[in-house]
Amino acid sequence: MTDKPLVPDFGDDNTERKMCFIASKGTLDMAYPSLVMANAALMEGIETHIFFTFWGLDMVTKKHMSDLQFTWMGNTAMHPPGGRFHMPQAMAGLPGMTAMATRMMKKQISDLDVPEIPEFIEMIEAAGGQLWACKMSVDMMGYEKDDLADEVIDIITATEFIEVSQGAQIIFT
User: Would you say residue 162 lies in a domain?
Assistant: First the structure.
């Protein structure tokens, strides 16, 4: 164990931190990393932004945010709760396996008292997190602002997000 700080020293005296997350995937398992990290950053007093782009937009789309799915197709590390064996990849493509895997993951999340996606989005916004939707993705999907969760501040371009994220740590999820 070292006594070095966990935060890198970039040689400036500015102690204000800013983190920006780019949420690009809309599956249940990929939604939580950016939400958990954004929430942790907010709890540490760090200015926090999330930019929802491509399928990550499903996390803040009213039509999809309550029904994100999980599949273990391609996830070679998948195993049942408490299990010591890996689930065979061949089973992942069978009918009903996505629904089963989704139920299993939602139960594990619930057992840990972690909020579901819509509630997590509300919590992050209430704690001061700023949520942005990608204009190109919104246009590609044929959405409008009314299709998005009320917590989304605005629909912005990638260029505008680059301006928002100036000086921030950027984490792509």
Answer: yes
